[in-house]
Every structure is written in structure tokens, then in C-alpha cells.
Amino acid sequence: MKVVKETDVEKKDEAIIQSDQIIHLTNHSPGGGRKNKYANKDLRMVTIYREDKKPMKILTNDFDRSAIEIANLYKQRWQIELFFKWIKQKLKLKTYFGQSENAIRIQIYTALISYLLMKLMQKASKGWSKLIDLQTWLQHGLFIKDSINTDYYRRRREKQMLIDKLQTTLEFA
Predict the structure, then answer these.
(1) What angle do CA 47, 52, 56 make, to 5 degrees?
(2) Helix axis angle, 67-90 relative to 101-125, nearest 10°?
(3) Sign of the CA dihedral 88, 90, 96, 99?
(4) Is the dihedral of CA 122, 94, 56, 44 positive or negative?
(5) Where does residue 20 rank: exposed (0-12), middle (13-18), buried (19+ CB within 10 A)?
(6) In 3-state terms, what secondary structure has residue 63?
(7) C-beta of residue 7 within 8 angstroms of C-beta of residue 67
(8) Over its length of 173 residues, how does the chain's per-residue pLDDT go in tens digits?
(9) I need a labelling partner for 115 at 20 to 30 A (CA). Which of 16, 64, 109, 150 fits?
(10) CA–CA dist 100, 19 (Å, integer)
């Protein structure tokens, strides 16, 4: 990597932005027979301070925005990445069934609603300490009669037996 130009960082942004540089990548063949299509082309490298960590370097071809805007865009992008990671982990969305924006929105909304309903059910029942246990029960035991339903069906069966017992029958000789 070769620094072509160092851009001054605005005073108000110095707490966040460490440096703003225009660079050229000098490695023409990164390995595996591949060619580096960005070699010897102007690229912008914005270096951001991070507490208790190494500074983060963002490489971009956006020369129009300020360094702080690029840092904020990366931060917003990272929030979106974390949101989709959470969706994949919690809502079990591994693949999308449609390819249109509307289909993906509907699938995400449906998954969010089901997740929120499970959280409400978990909180209301106080019997499920882990959400995964509730989710497993819903997936496998939703259509199995539980004790509430069993009592209902038992009372219904007893009532029907009483009606059958009291029902008079006509016998033909």
C-alpha cells in the first residue's frame, strides 16, 4: 500500500477520525492466480479510533463524502448487519422464500410477529425459562391436546354420555 495524499481531518472530527488518506494498493496478485482490480487505482482509506481496540480502517472509492460521513455510514451498515444476524439467529430465517422486496418484508414481519408473540407467551406463562423450549413445544406440540384441552374434551365426552344415557330408544319388535 502506498499513500498518495493525506487529507486534513476537521478539528471537530479528530476525536473519531484518526486519518483520511488517498492510497494505491501495490499488490497486483494477492494469491491464487487472482488479479487485484484495485491495484494502482485511487482509493480512500479512513482510519477510525476505537476504544480499547486497534483503529479500524475503512477502504472506499467514495471521494465526495466527508470522513465522518463515511464513518457514520459504516456504523449504520454495521447496525444493519447486526440486525440481520439477530434475525437469522432468533427468528430462524436462513433463506428467503421470495426475491422481491415485498416478499422479504412480509417474511421478516411474519417472523418478527411470531417472535414477539412467543416472547409474550413466555412472559405470560412464566413456565418457559428458555425461549428455545417454548419454540420447540410450539413446533412439535402445538396440535397435541394439553391438560386444558384434555379436561375440556373429558367434560364434553361425559356430557355426551349423559345425553346418550337419558335418551330414550325405540325398540321395534
Answers:
(1) 20
(2) 60
(3) negative
(4) negative
(5) buried
(6) coil
(7) yes
(8) 888 898 888 888 888 898 999 998 888 877 777 888 888 889 999 999 988 889 999 999 999 999 999 999 998 998 888 887 877 787 777 777 888 999 888 988 988 898 888 888 888 877 777 877 888 877 777 666 665 566 777 888 899 888 888 877 767 76
(9) 150
(10) 40
